[in-house]
User: Fold this.
Amino acid sequence: MGKAFTACVVALVLTFYLRNLDSVVTGMIALALFIYVLFIVTIEINRYQKDKLAIDYLRNVPWLDESKGDCYVKATGKLINPDTLTTPQSGKRCNFFAFTVQGEWEHKRKKPQKGMETLRKTLHTVTSDQDMEIQCSNFTVSCNVAAFLKQGVSLLKKDQKTQRSSPVPLPPGKSHPYRRFIITEKHCNHADEVTVFGRLVNNQGRWRLAAPHREQQPAIFAIGKPKTVYNFFQHKVDDRYRLFLWKAAGIVTFSVALLGWNVMLQL
Assistant:
């Protein structure tokens, strides 16, 4: 609601500066904006419906079972790997970690845009690569979390901080534009309950969950129950929908204000 209110205020300010335009011009601008809003509303409604169908599809993905070989399935179980690793930055014990350092800097926007924009570049990445063993209700299945991290969605325990100095060496003899460094650690532990969406394959008598290479079948590795995954995707859909709503509110307010001013000029 706060962003929608801000968009409306900006729209009213723009109307004030454009109040001296010819009434025909303001009417044409308002009409064009109304048509544009109707167009993007149609697109967003269709996208929202498709996103909801995608979430419903995940809810109906079959559970892991030996009869589902080479199929896209979901599994819930506990990690049985011991915590033999240590995260590089915080030193936490774990059985898997992904460590990333990003450099952040401000960059002047290219014309005709104005102002500055924040850019990031990944400078360093370290990921443990051992297979995870998941004890499900009916049998044990293995999974390479690193593959899911690269190709899909991974919802792990996450620690992130920002600092002025780089925790890893930068190329010597070269100046860099970085103002801040974002350090991110993701990890999981022994006995964590996890949910995995992947393709069930049999490799020499051992069952594995592989990361599928299909857009409609996302590779997902998440700490928690399936509801954690559904909520994650639902929040993404809702956030995008709210962003669209406050933009649309600003455009509609601008159009209505222009038309209102036009009517007042005719009185």
Notes: The chain is about 40% helix and 30% strand.
